[in-house]
């Protein structure tokens, strides 16, 4: 038997008995086109909790899987992503027209690093951000690509992972392909898949579990092969976020014990699901919770994360306040206070007006 040519293999992916796989093609086109647009149109850190997920990706790229194990003191965070984030703006704006041309050459260390006690709230299981962590390690740490190139590649990586999992789900499900394809291509799903987030892979795993469970449940007889498929689905599901874990009840609602043609098959399925739940869901969350409680109980100092430019501004403000305290004339006091306020304005994002100084001296009787 001759091996299939590349053309035949491609046709097998998109054709079934000579008919186009419409739902799968629709899913891939819609998610890719609109998802890719969202990747570049959303401002830096514009996704939900995208900033904290990026911190987790950076930490994992250093081969540190436990969240907040080294982040901050031992592993400072690149300040370029903090500075370019739309969350640093006083007035939130979309991506400006010349944003890419203006910042495309900035390296990851171009604005130094954020030192101090910074923490990520992204404490989900490592597989949910593992592809992005690998990209960060290779492009950012090993090959030293520009910061924005790495950032947008991270977004595209999550989008492609979601596309793959959603496509497998639609391919696997025996019926309702269009329903699942439309559900997977809703605007919210595409938006979540287009940002640096644990939701991209977690949502894809949920779709895969639904499609795979229905495919197995429709089989008349379930043997070791089908039990192995269910074990794989449970294993993948339990790596997801906690909000998709309740889907684990789905196979038990659809599969009858009489469908198993192996002894105690339904009981084996139940024990297997419980064991994987204890290992992946309970085990991981207890590990993270124990680490968090331990840090809170044993860490006595609470240092804030300080950007390099903020540190310089605070030092400047302290120096000017010292000048004001030692000055012997109202003019020098006013000048020093204004300089201190200007320096603090670099940290708070606002510069105090002249009437602040006037308010300060309104309690003094100058000239007597």
Structure characterization notes:
- This protein is mainly alpha-helical.
- The protein contains 16 helices and 4 strands.
- The strands form 2 sheets. It has a two-stranded antiparallel sheet with strand order 1-2.
- Strand 1 and strand 2 form a beta hairpin.
- Helix 7 packs parallel to helix 10.
The gyration radius over C-alpha positions equals 27 Å
The first-to-last residue Cα distance is 108 Å
Shape: elongated
**Would you count the extended β strands for me?**
4
Structural class: mainly alpha
User: How big a fraction of the residues is strand?
Assistant: under 5%
One letter per element, helices H and strands E, the order comes to: HEEHHEHHEHHHHHHHHHHH
Q: Approximately how much helix is present in the residues?
A: 55-70%
How would you summarize the topology of this molecule?
Elements: H1 6-14, E1 15-16, E2 19-20, H2 22-41, H3 50-60, E3 77-78, H4 79-84, H5 99-103, E4 113-114, H6 130-142, H7 147-172, H8 177-184, H9 187-193, H10 199-217, H11 224-237, H12 250-254, H13 265-298, H14 308-326, H15 330-348, H16 354-361
Antiparallel strand pairs: 1-2, 3-4
Helix pairs in contact: 2-7, 2-8, 3-6, 6-7, 7-8, 7-10, 10-11, 11-13, 14-15
Write a concise keyword list for the protein shown above:
16 helices, mainly alpha, two-stranded antiparallel sheet, 368 residues
Short description:
The chain has helices spanning 6-14, 22-41, 50-60, 79-84, 99-103, 130-142, 147-172, 177-184, 187-193, 199-217, 224-237, 250-254, 265-298, 308-326, 330-348, 354-361; strands spanning 15-16, 19-20, 77-78, 113-114.
């Amino acid at each position: 038997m001759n091996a299939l040519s590349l053309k035949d293999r491609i046709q097998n992916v998109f054709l079934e008995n000579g008919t186009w796989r419409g739902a799968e093609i629709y899913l891939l086109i819609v998610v890719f086109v609109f998802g890719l647009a969202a990747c570049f149109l959303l401002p830096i850190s514009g996704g939900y909790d995208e900033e904290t997920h990026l911190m987790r990706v950076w930490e994992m790229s250093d081969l540190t899987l436990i969240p907040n194990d080294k982040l901050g003191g031992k592993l400072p965070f690149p300040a370029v992503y903090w500075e370019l984030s739309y969350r640093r703006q006083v007035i939130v704006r979309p991506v400006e027209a010349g944003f890419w041309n203006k910042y495309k050459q900035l390296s990851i260390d171009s604005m130094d690093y954020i030192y101090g006690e910074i923490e990520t709230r992204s404490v989900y299981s490592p597989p949910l951000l593992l592809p992005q962590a690998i990209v960060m390690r290779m492009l950012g740490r090993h090959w030293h690509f520009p910061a924005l190139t790495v950032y947008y590649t991270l977004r595209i990586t999550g989008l492609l992972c979601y596309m793959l999992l959603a496509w497998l789900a639609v391919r696997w499900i025996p019926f309702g392909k269009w329903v699942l394809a439309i559900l997977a291509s809703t605007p919210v799903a595409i938006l979540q898949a287009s940002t640096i987030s644990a939701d991209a892979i977690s949502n894809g795993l949920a779709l895969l579990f639904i499609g795979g469970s229905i495919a197995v449940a429709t089989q008349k007889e379930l043997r070791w092969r089908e039990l192995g498929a269910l074990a794989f689905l449970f294993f993948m599901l339990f790596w997801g976020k906690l909000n998709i874990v309740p889907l684990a009840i789905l196979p038990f609602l659809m599969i009858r014990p009489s469908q198993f043609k192996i002894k105690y098959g339904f009981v084996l399925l139940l024990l297997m699901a419980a064991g994987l739940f204890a290992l992946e869901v309970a085990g991981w969350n207890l590990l993270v919770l124990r680490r968090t409680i331990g840090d809170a109980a044993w860490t006595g100092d609470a240092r804030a994360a300080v950007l390099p430019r903020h540190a310089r501004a605070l030092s400047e403000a302290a120096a000017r306040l010292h000048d004001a305290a030692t000055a012997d004339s109202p003019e020098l006091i006013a000048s020093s206070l204004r300089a201190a306020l200007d320096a603090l304005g670099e940290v708070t994002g606002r510069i105090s007006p002249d009437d602040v100084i006037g308010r300060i001296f309104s309690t003094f009787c100058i000239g007597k």
